[in-house]
Amino acid sequence: MQLYHHPYSLDSQKVRMALEEKGIDYTSYHVNPLTGKNMNVDFFRMNPSAKLPVFQNGAHVIYRAIDIIQYIDRLAVHLSGEIPPVNTVVNQWMQKVDAWNPKMFTLTHTPVKYRAFVSKFIRRVLIARMAEAPDLASMYHVKLRAAYETDDKVKDPEIMRQSEEELSKLLDDVENQLSKTKYLAGDDFSPADSMFIPILARITLLDLDEEYINCRPKILEYYNLVKHRPSYKVAIGKYFNGWKKYRTLFKTSFFLCENAIPGTVLHKERAWQQATMTHHGTEAPDLTCMYYVKLREAYDMEGKDPNIMK
Ligand SMILES: N[C@@H](CCC(=O)N[C@@H](CS)C(=O)NCC(=O)O)C(=O)O
């Protein structure tokens, strides 16, 4: 079994916690979305959404965190030989937690300068990969368009308000539940907890504990309790406790700075794109014109961004 994931990715953390809780062994592959590694051709070919995590068991590939966790659960039951009834309470909580999308919340609480820098870098990677694998150009194009849409959305104060409101509502429901039970779906730890705890860790990473956690005593107590679990330590604590948080973040910023020095990525990639285009043009002359249309569109989108050439 293989898991493609990254310590930064909240949805990956959910799956990693569930795997640790069940004691399931797997081969781990780190794919850093902040450095555009999820756009690498081999990975993108397997998973054109480029989203993490991806779980593979033989020919079986699963893409959504909730589906992976349900699969792991069934697998663990199968291995232990017992067949407990389907726990609807656990499932309901899993669906509820899954319904909150952390993307806009995270982006709107990330400093603008850093956000713009990463976004520009990712768009350049996308354009370069498009030229590298012209057969995937239209899929890369979908991602590029989505990246521009996200850039627009993130500037909308209403989007920020909405994501904050949805999170507060989820936390209020959890607070209420934790006043009745020790864990989310009862008095035993369940996959619903594996899905929820990374949300608390994200709030901490964004330095928002005061606003969202400390004011909810039951959640605070629960958070302090679950932080002692080995699954939390392996999936989250290991990367984000104290100074390690800065080491994890530093590794990515170092990569981004190295590759963003003017004249390296952009010019090298452009020269290379020309070569690739010529190569593919010769290989499939009937498609040359379409390749150029895709690349031209990508460059046009790039040109529309007032910051991209700075
Ligand atoms: N519905 C998916 C969402 C996965 C997702 O959005 N993953 C983020 C990281 S937590 C990602 O890979 N983003 C990179 C991208 O969209 O290019 C799931 O539950 O697994």
Automatic annotation (TrEMBL):
GO molecular function annotation: glutathione transferase activity
PROSITE patterns: GST_CTER (PS50405), GST_NTER (PS50404)
Top-level taxon in the UniProt lineage: Eukaryota
Record domain GST C-terminal: where: 121-254
InterPro entries given in the database record: Glutathione-S-Trfase_C-like, Glutathione-S-Trfase_C_sf, Glutathione_S-Trfase, Glutathione_S-Trfase_N, GST_C, TCHQD, Thioredoxin-like_sf
Residues annotated as domain GST N-terminal: 1-80
Protein name, entry field: Glutathione S-transferase TCHQD
